[in-house]
Amino acid sequence: MSVKQSFTPTHKARWASLPVLVAVALLVAAFEVHASVDSSLFTPDEWQRLEAGALVSRSTTRNKGNLRLMGGSTWQVIDAAPGVVWQALLDTRRYRHMMPQVLEARLVRDKDSVRTVFMRQGAKGLVEASYFLKVNVHEERRDITFSVDEARPHDLLKAAWGFYSVRSYRNGKTLLVYSVMADIDGGPLVGLMRGTVHEWLLRTPSMVKHFVEGRGRRFYR
Question: Which has the closest alpha carbon to 133: 166, 92, 80, 83?
């Protein structure tokens, strides 16, 4: 099986507006290298994990200018049809069930396939980050790209961007591909927890799987 995703000129134009120009280069690399799945990309153990429904992830860290970026790419097979998984990814009010440490998620604006989403994330009463995401929805190919909306408040989150791709898998299942890079500037406390934060940044596809296959299944057709 092979699933291929390309980074189109339309994507480039939208991401070129980011103040941190290095985001473009890193995201292009993520699309070209990580959003393809075939037997040659994975080790035998990773391929076995993917087939068994386990999360396969590749984490990375990079320093670019004044940014300390962490993130990576993940792949997850979900026992639900692609249309079901796609509906779930657009269901903003239930993000707290599908994304780690989400305290609040709210759709602020939705026009011409471009969304503004408010997020409040972290440990309540300890470390919380509130920010807005600019979300581009490509319905025809079931892709989503996102970045921090730098025109709005984004405390603790200096930069972030990424994508989701929803693809058909055999036996009516779905392959969810996810990639993210972020710089979370939360002071000494977040610095001490950096390894843990990096780990939960990549957990989203497994949480989507757990929700869609479980109690969330009844919400989507």
Answer: 92
In this prediction the pTM is 0.79
- Cβ contact 166:72 at 8 Å: no
Give a three-class secondary structure readout of 95-130: HHHHCCCEEEEEEEEEECCEEEEEEEEEECCCEEEE
d(CA 99, CA 212): 12
Q: Which residues pair with 132 in a beta bridge?
A: 118
Q: Of 41, 7, 27, give the one whose Cα is nearest residue 182.
A: 27
- How many other CB atoms are found less than 10 A from the CB of residue 217? 14
Tell me which residues of the chain have a pLDDT lower than 70: 1-39, 124-127, 186-195
Let me know: does 43 contact 12? Beta carbons within 8 Å: no
Task: Give the Cα separation of 25 and 31 in Å (integer).
Answer: 10
Distance, CA of 138 to CA of 136 (rounded, Å): 6
Q: Are 90 and 82 in contact (CB under 8 A)?
A: no
